[in-house]
Design goal:
By secondary structure, this protein is α+β, with helices and mostly antiparallel strands. It has one domain (1-74): Ubiquitin-like (UB roll) (Roll), CATH 3.10.20. The chain is built from one helix and three strands. It has one helix spanning 46-57, and strands spanning 10-21, 24-36, 42-43. The longest helix is centred in the C-terminal third of the chain and has 12 residues, at 46-57. The protein is globular. Bound molecules: zinc ion. Zinc ion is lined by residues 3, 5-6, 8, 36, 38-39, 41. Residues 3, 5-6, 8, 36, 38-39, 41 line the site of zinc ion.
C-alpha cells in the first residue's frame, strides 16, 4: 500500500491518536496505523477507525489522565 498523499512507503506502526472536537480532547495510545515514511501521514484501517470513534461517543474509562498546558498566542 502507498500513501494517498505523496505516494510514499507505508510502514505499520503503533501511534498515539489524538481526537479533537470542540472542547473534547483525548488521546488513544498504541493504535495500529500505517504511517507514511515520507510525509508522516497516518492511515487507519476501517476497523481501527470504528473503534476510535467509539471512544468519542461511548463512555469509556480512561487508563490515565494527563494534564496539558494551554497557551494563548498573543
Ligand atoms: Zn506520504
Amino acid at each position: 500500500m502507498k500513501c494517498v498523499f505523496c505516494g510514499g512507503k507505508l510502514e505499520r506502526r503503533n501511534v498515539a491518536f489524538r481526537y479533537e472536537e470542540d472542547n473534547n480532547y483525548f488521546f488513544v495510545e498504541e493504535v495500529p496505523a500505517e504511517v507514511c515514511t515520507s510525509c508522516g501521514e497516518k492511515t487507519y484501517s476501517p476497523e481501527v477507525t470504528d473503534k476510535l470513534l467509539k471512544y468519542a461517543t461511548e463512555e469509556h474509562k480512561p487508563t490515565k489522565t494527563i494534564e496539558v498546558p494551554v497557551f494563548s498566542f498573543e
